Amino acid sequence: MAESNSPVLIKGPKGTQKELVASAIHGASVGEDENEQPFESIDCANSASDEIVDRLIGSDKCGGGLVKDAARGTVLVENVDQLPIELQPDLGSPMRKAKDEARFLFTTAADLDGAVADESFDESLFYRISTQSIDCPSLEKRLEDIPLFAESVLQGLGKESVQISEAARRLLQSYGWPGNFTEFRQVIENAAADCSDDTIEEADLPDCIRETNQWSSLADHLEAASREYKARILNACQGDSKKAAKILDCKPSELS
Prior knowledge:
By secondary structure, the chain is an alpha/beta fold. 46% of the residues lie in helices and 11% in strands.
């Protein structure tokens, strides 16, 4: 992928560090010349719609703007789904003209396939930018890797000596992380600053994480109590699942 000059669509929920993936692609593409090759970016979510195209391709729409500034480098268009649909076709021509000069990378947290289907995203632009794609999964789908991610954050802070207790690790791995890696990094940074004896404990984690664990524990207890109650009713019915299911107002299959 790094050797190609084709556009790349980087997909994933907010906070999944898509911009770091884009930076890594740029670095791998230009190799040792990374510091000499430009890396220009624009965030469609934080730019006025009437300025986006001008900034990207110049007011004459003939390949100026960031496309010209990023000659022999990379143009990153963040949150491309936020580019107004009436402006989306304007990207086609300059992308074709610049394909041998600047590489385009795009990020989105939206379902562009669905957006194309309901005609809220230009189909031709979608196929042009998604010839190659990378999925950045949410942190919730990579909970087993949390110790490694925490170690990486701590190394970046110069706090390699800080450890995470087993109880704190279980809490971190039971949380849903709606803010993904952005939230995770902030939590680890704050915990590392607040902890004593170079060990992050449960008390060093924010309330939202500790409370999630409490509710999870309660849910586990309720589920266990429900299983035990069903088992008792089934036993009282001498194993007759249909009779027990009628008493419990559930399906017999739920008692197996």
